[in-house]
């Protein structure tokens, strides 16, 4: 875990503020995990970003990784983004309280592959937080934390071994 007061946010290529966030509760003293999502965007980069910045969606994420590897900051790390919904991780409910959410542009249909640029960007981002003390096994899927189990499938088709190997290689 990284205490919020010590957390150094990673830089992004662009910023596009989402209004869909709130304060973190005092009961969540630090960053415990990072949840990876797929946008399930039907191929529309602009549409996914519009949705995550639309107040009526009541959905957001801290970062969004486009297909070309561009990283867009939507919500500051110190704020509670609305990405995990009803969720549980390691016997703790409401994962939004103690996590960051990263949206990866993808159809989430198991046919569209995640791009080399996305894996490279994700590894760079992850190394930043691992370097601050977050364990590599604290990077989890939305499907893993969503409740009830089976409610979400994202990021479907994501190569976790490739991601972890890239983080290890980049961090050494």
Summarize the structure.
23% of the residues lie in helices and 20% in strands. It has helices spanning 45-52, 116-130, 142-145, 160-171; strands at 2-3, 14-15, 21-22, 30-31, 33-38, 63-65, 71-73, 80-81, 88-89, 92-93, 99-104, 139-141.
Structure description:
With 172 residues, the chain is an alpha/beta fold. The protein has a single domain (2-7, 29-157), classed as 3-Layer(aba) Sandwich (Lysozyme-like). The chain is 23% helix and 20% strand. The chain contains 4 helices and 12 strands; from the N terminus they run βββββαββββββαβαα. The strands form 4 sheets. Strands 2-7-6-11-5-12 form a 6-stranded mixed sheet. A two-stranded antiparallel ribbon has the order 1-4. α2 crosses α4. The two termini are 21 Å apart.
């Amino acid at each position: 875990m990284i205490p919020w007061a010590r957390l150094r946010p990673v830089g992004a290529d662009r910023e596009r503020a989402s209004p869909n966030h709130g304060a973190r509760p005092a009961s969540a003293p630090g960053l415990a995990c990072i949840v990876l999502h797929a946008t399930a965007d039907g191929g529309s980069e602009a549409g996914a970003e519009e949705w995550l910045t639309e107040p009526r969606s009541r959905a957001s994420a801290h970062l969004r990784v486009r297909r070309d590897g561009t990283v867009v900051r939507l919500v500051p790390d110190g704020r509670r983004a609305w990405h995990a919904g009803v969720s549980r991780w390691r016997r703790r409910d409401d994962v939004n309280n103690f996590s960051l959410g990263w949206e990866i542009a993808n159809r989430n249909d198991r046919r569209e592959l995640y791009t080399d640029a996305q894996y490279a960007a994700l590894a760079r981002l992850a190394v930043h937080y691992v370097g601050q003390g977050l364990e590599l096994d604290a990077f989890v899927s939305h499907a893993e934390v969503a409740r009830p189990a089976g409610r979400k499938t994202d990021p479907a088709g994501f190569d976790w071994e490739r991601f972890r190997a890239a983080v290890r290689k980049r961090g050494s």
